[in-house]
Amino acid sequence: MDYRTLIKKIRLENSFSQQEFADLIHVSRQSVSKWENNKIMSNLDYMNEICNQFNIPVKDFFNSKSKNQL
C-alpha cells in the first residue's frame, strides 16, 4: 500500500468526504483527489498534518507495505 492508498483508507475509515478531509488538513478537495488518484504530494507538511490529525506515525507513509508483501 502506498501513501496515496493510505490517505484514502484513513479518510474512508473516518467517514470523511474528500471535502471534509481537505478542510481538516487545510488543503483543497482537488488536492485530496489528486493524492488519491496517484498524483504526487507536493508538500510533505501535508503528510505531517495528516499524521498529527489521525495520530499516525510518519514512518507509516514510508513503510506502508504489510509484512506479507515484503
Number of helices: 5
- The number of strands is 0
**pLDDT averaged over residues:** 83
What's the architecture in CATH terms?
Answer: Orthogonal Bundle
Separation of the first and last Cα atoms: 11 Å
Helix content: 55-70%
- Structural class label: mainly alpha
Report the sheet with the most strands, covering strand number, pairing sense and barrel closure.
Answer: none
The CATH homologous superfamily: lambda repressor-like DNA-binding domains
What is the CATH class name?
Mainly Alpha
Walkthrough of the structure:
The protein has 70 residues and is mainly alpha-helical. The chain has a single domain (3-56), classed as lambda repressor-like DNA-binding domains (434 Repressor (Amino-terminal Domain), Orthogonal Bundle). Helix content is 60%, strand content 0%. The protein contains five helices and no strands. The radius of gyration is 12 Å and the shape is globular. The N and C termini lie close together (11 Å).
